[in-house]
Each structure stands twice: as structure tokens, then as C-alpha cells.
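can u pls check wat happens w/ protoporphyrin IX containing FE
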Amino acid sequence: MSSLLHFLRSTVFTKIVMATSGLLIIGFLVGHLLGNLLMFAGPEKINGYALGLKNLGPLLWVVRIAMITAFGLHVWSSIELALRNRAARPIAYDTKKSLKSTLASRTMLVSGMAILFFVIYHLLHYTFGIIQPNTYYAGGYRMESTGEIVHHVYNMVVAGFQNPFIALSYMIALAFMSSHVSHAMSSAFQTLGITNPNISKFTSKLGPALAAIFLIGYLSIPIGVMIGVIKKAPPQEHVLE
Ligand code: HEM
């Protein structure tokens, strides 16, 4: 019992929490990107996808609660590790550069904080409709397939990125997210004890590759709106604007 408590309080446990919650968040980011790319397929597809998610009902809440827990544990473990680090080394190193460090690895706390602010801002924007309340409902969308009137996620996202300040803030946040992911993957695998040189060779490339896919994929949406590839959908009959 006491050895279990000792383990739960250890730095190793905190690092395992950070790594597993981080990998779960990366899984969410893959799914979220695939869903968001439906913006290129038009309103019927992305609004239908958002409706499909909503119709998952309790299952959606299970996933949401799992994700909120993962985000919460990830933030907690990063603060805990930073505090322990500081306590173990009250006088900072003269030089912060270690042999194998990269800009991404040295700025994990800064990029992590930027992502935390971004997620709060993003939820206030697209999930709660507080940042741009006039474009949140965006008139509603009548599904061509079923005639059902649903949340016009497509026009809401277009309206968001038609505002250059909002588009720029997303692009900056996405750069931080990509930098964070680029270092996070190999770090997580190392923490989880996957240190076999052959696997490490692969995992050390997986982080930067995924970071590049995330950056290009997510950026394509604000850029698509800004250059007019993704345009506001025209008003439909029987839907109030
Ligand atoms: C161009 C980039 C992005 C776009 C266009 C986008 C779009 C959206 C939209 C439209 C929603 C609301 C869905 C709905 O209510 O039906 C949403 C929710 C959300 N987004 Fe994003 N997103 C982007 C990037 C990100 C990133 C980088 C993260 C994480 C770091 C993120 C995390 C979330 C979370 C946690 C939710 C709430 C999910 C839920 O309510 O179940 N998003 N996003």
C-alpha cells in the first residue's frame, strides 16, 4: 500500500500521466482535423457531421468527459513537474541549452500555455458562441438530405475566419500547437519506456511529421476562407437569416 502511494506521488507517475494524457489529446486532434476538413466538402457534409456527433448523445458526453479529464491531467502534470524541477534546482542553469535540445523542446511550457489560452478562447468562440454571438447560429441550415434544420457550423466557421484578427490569432495558436506536438511525441514514448533504438528512430520522426500534418491541415481552413476557396453558403428558403 505504501509503495503504491509512493509511486502515485513520484515524478515517474506524473510523467506517465503527462505522456498518456498527451497521446489522448493527440488522438483527439487527429479526429478533430478529419472532421474540420469537411469544411472543404461544403455545408451539407460538415453540418451533417456536427449533427451526427450531437446525436451520439451520452456517448458524446463520455468522450467529452474523457477529453476534459485528459486536458486537466495534462495541465496539472505539467505544472507539477515544472514546480518539482524548480524545487530540485533553485538556482537556474547559467545556460539553458542542453546538448540535444531544440527550440520546440525548450519552449514546451510556453507553447503549452498558449494552447491552454487558445482552447479556452476556441470554446468561447465556436462551442459557446460568446466571442462572435451574432454569427453563432448563422441562420440555421436545412439539411438537403432530411429537411431537418440544424446548427450552421459551416457558416459560423466561415464568419469566424472572415475576421482577419480572429484568423491571425488561430494561425498563431496553431503554430504553437504544432511546435508542442513536434517535441511531445518522442518525449511521451521515451517516458513510457519505448526506448528501443529502432522504434525510437521511428518515433523521433513521428512527432515532427504529425506536427507538420496538423499545421498544414488546420491552417488550410482559415487560409481557405481568407482566399475564398471556402465561401459563405447562400441563404436557404424557410430558414431565418
Ligand atoms: C482551424 C482550426 C480549427 C477549427 C476550424 C475548429 C473548429 C471547431 C468547431 C466548429 C467546434 C465546435 C463544434 C460544434 O459545436 O459542433 C470545435 C470544438 C472544439 N475544438 Fe476545434 N477547431 C480548430 C482547432 C482546434 C485545435 C487546434 C484544438 C485543440 C488544441 C481544438 C479543440 C477543440 C475542442 C476541445 C472543442 C470542443 C469539442 C466538443 O464540444 O465536444 N480545436 N472546433
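The chain has one domain: 9-87+106-226.
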